[in-house]
Amino acid sequence: MNSREEINKEIHQEIEQEEKENKRKKTTIFIFKIILYIIIVFSLFYIYTIYISTNGLLFKEKRIITKKIPNSFDSLKIIHFSDLHFGSTIDINDLKKIIININERTPDLIIFTGDLIEEEYTISDEEIEELIKTLKKLSANIGMYAINGDEDDDNFTTIMKQCGFTVLDNNSDLIYKDSNTPILITGISSIKKGQNIEKAFNTYLQNNSLYHIVLMHEGDTFKELEGKYNIDLILAGNSLNGQICLTKDICFIRRENSYTYFKEYYQLGNTEMFISSGIGSDAIGFRFGARPSINFFRFSTPNK
User: Fold this and answer.
1) Are the C-beta atoms of residues 281 and 89 closer than 8 Å to each other?
2) Which of 148, 144, 87 is nearest to 114 (CA)?
3) 293-304, pLDDT tens digit by residue?
4) β 58-65/293-300 pair status
5) Model confidence pLDDT, tens digit, residues 64-79
6) Cβ neighbours of residue 116 closer than 8 Å, sequence gap 6 or more
7) Nearest CA to 278 among 105, 123, 128, 150?
8) Using CB atoms within 10 A of its CB, is residue 47 exposed (0-12), middle (13-18) or buried (19+)?
9) Scanning 13, 43, 97, 180, which has its CA 20 to 30 A from the CA of 32?
10) pLDDT single digits (tens) 247-300
11) Does position 134 have pLDDT exceeding 80, yes or no?
């Protein structure tokens, strides 16, 4: 027969064993919860970046007040879009909706700053025909202008011209609206596609007092222009505004030639630079904190 001490010892051991077992169960449950939370967070992040952040296109309306623009251009409306990357997160049905939304705003000018088709996407001849047919539905009161991007191939100019765009690769144009005083628009090719700044600014040299809009694909091209030319407004693309961002300043994808200038807006002396966040995505196919968007500019003179 066991003594009282032996019985108490056995009871104590049983209690300790039970406590250890409960502790192991709690630890296992805690680890399981952590793993479950990680899976849930990762899944939500994946769903957001792939299916939500790449959709829900934003129209960002900007007002530009300037005394330099001729009075005839008061209330000028410009639509600026970039980096369509057709075949990435954008298909032909998406594009049709985008064009309806653009035309509803009755723009005077439509600007496209490069990367029409995703470089990694193999587009068929039938899709190119459908792409042209769809882009032809864009409508602007004065005109439409485009420059190439680093991913645009030899078909870019042909496609855009068929769609009614004037391709301003290393060239300029004078734009008139209800008067004999124009504004000047200059287009600069992508750094990787034969950029020639001296050629692009030939017209500027005879018209350097006009309100001047410059189109460029990569924001860092500004480094080659700073202090050399009078530029009032720069419209650019390429960067997707960082594509994966925690804040406007903390972004994790800085594209080549858009490392310094990648954010949505910069005031550079007397020059305003707006960089489009683009419409599509690149080959990785997701975004975070940098939603796809189109910029919609309204101009006015100070007395309006």
Assistant:
1) yes
2) 148
3) 999 999 998 865
4) parallel
5) 999 999 999 999 999 9
6) 84, 86, 149, 152, 156, 159, 160
7) 150
8) exposed
9) 13
10) 777 777 888 999 999 999 999 999 999 999 999 887 666 677 678 899 999 999
11) yes
Q: Are 150 and 115 in contact (CB under 8 A)?
A: yes
Query: In whole angstroms, what is the distance from residue 118 CA to residue 161 CA?
Result: 19
- For 266, the token pair is 């910069």
The per-residue pLDDT for range 67-119, each reduced to its tens digit, is: 999 999 999 999 999 999 999 889 999 999 999 999 999 999 999 999 999 99
Q: What is the 3-state secondary structure (H, E, C) of the chain?
A: CCCHHHHHHHHHHHHHHHHHHHHHHHHHHHHHHHHHHHHHHHHHHHHHHHHHCCCCCEEEEEEEECCCCCHHHCCCEEEEECCCCECCCECHHHHHHHHHHHHHCCCCEEEECCCCECCCCCCCHHHHHHHHHHHCCCCCCCEEEECCCCCCCCHHHHHHHHCCCEECCCEEEEECCCCCCCEEEEECCCCCCCCCHHHHCCCHHHCCCCCEEEEEEEHHHHHHCCCCCCCCEEEEECCHHHCEECCCCCECCCCCCCCCCCCCEEEECCEEEEECCCCCCCCCCCCECCCCEEEEEEEECCCC
Q: Identify the residue whose tokens are 């997701």.
A: 286
Cα dihedral across residues 131, 136, 141, 144: positive or negative: positive
Assess contact for 155 and 128: CB atoms under 8 A: yes
